[in-house]
Amino acid sequence: MRAPDTVPDAVPDIVPDIVPAGVLQTVGRTPLVELTRLEPAARFRLFAKLEAHNPGGSIKDRSALELLREAIREGRVVPGRSVVVESSSGNLGIGLAQVCGYYGIRFICVVDPRANRQNIAVMRALGAEVEVVTRTDPVTGEYLPVRIRRVREILAVTEHAYCPDQYSNPLNPRSHHATMREIWEAVPGGLDYLFCATSSCGTLRGCAEYARAQQLPVTIVAVDAEGSVIFGREPAPRLIPGHGAAVRPALHQDGLADEVVHVSDLDCVVNCRRLAHREAILAGGSAGAVIAAVRRMSDRIPAGATCAVILPDRGERYLDTIYDDDWVAAHFGDVAHLWKEDRPVPEVAPC
Ligand SMILES: Cc1ncc(COP(=O)(O)O)c(C=O)c1O
Prior knowledge:
The structure is a single chain. By secondary structure, the protein is of the alpha/beta class. It has two domains: 22-53 and 178-340, Rossmann fold (3-Layer(aba) Sandwich), CATH 3.40.50; 60-162, 3-Layer(aba) Sandwich (Rossmann fold). It is built from ten helices and ten strands. It has helices at residues 60-73, 91-103, 117-125, 144-157, 171-174, 177-186, 202-213, 265-279, 285-297, 325-332; strands at residues 32-34, 45-50, 83-87, 106-111, 129-132, 161-162, 193-197, 219-225, 259-263, 306-311. Helix 3 (117-125) links the parallel strand 4 and strand 5 (129-132). It is globular, with a radius of gyration of 20 Å. It binds pyridoxal-5'-phosphate. Pyridoxal-5'-phosphate binds next to helix 2 and helix 7.
């Protein structure tokens, strides 16, 4: 199949300033809030970094901006001429669609049927061309190898094509040095544990690189999906997109995480729904995963410790799955009692 050969409607006359401008100035510097209602009996403090507050709705806005800004600066991507091609299950695709849309760069995103319809619609609304692969890889039964092969095919037949390759590009983790720095600077009195979900390993590696370089005394906990191969486990089917990977990413290195926790799809659902019920935070599946990991480790976290979780994206993208009662019942049975348990009415601090 040939790559589509349209060009973006609006091509800027001048090479844009690569200092983030316009909406791109709002990437990063997301809020950090304390979660006091989720585990009222916990002996440790828990803070959440709300990455949904990025303009494209996820932590991947940071990676998208860093990947393309540097490529533009180095002349590998030229607005109006280059074509950016990437494989994404959704969030990086939205981030790249946003950066490409801002700079007037044509963008082709290869996704699979697990990407949700809303993400695809958002990318298209921002001007991206979205191609959905339909078959799984005959060896692994996964979509990812097929998506990667399709990206290579498009690159081979498209002039001035550039693939940021989030799975191996060191600019992806570099974008998360700021994520770690922001958390460290915002948490009062130092951070003991950081929980972060993994897929390309960009967040994990970037936070770990920054923490090690600055000698921050923080234990970094990687949170992966059951059925993901990143940390050497056997592949298995997974329902929830975002965290986890069917192929170990090139960015993975041994020793990035001090601990690894694997979380099931049901754990993600239950903890997303608890987060919504108790803290009024509507977040994506991997947010449920990191909360599940904190609960799993809670007996081992010392009293008085300070923990932070990174909540990678918005819950709106999961309204027809995680937040849909019928979808949940169809996949897991009658589990609503797991997040609807009684809880004391929270105290309201006086104004
Ligand atoms: C919702 C969500 N959570 C977690 C991750 C994992 O982040 P990383 O690719 O930096 O490992 C991603 C990556 O796309 C994601 O979209």
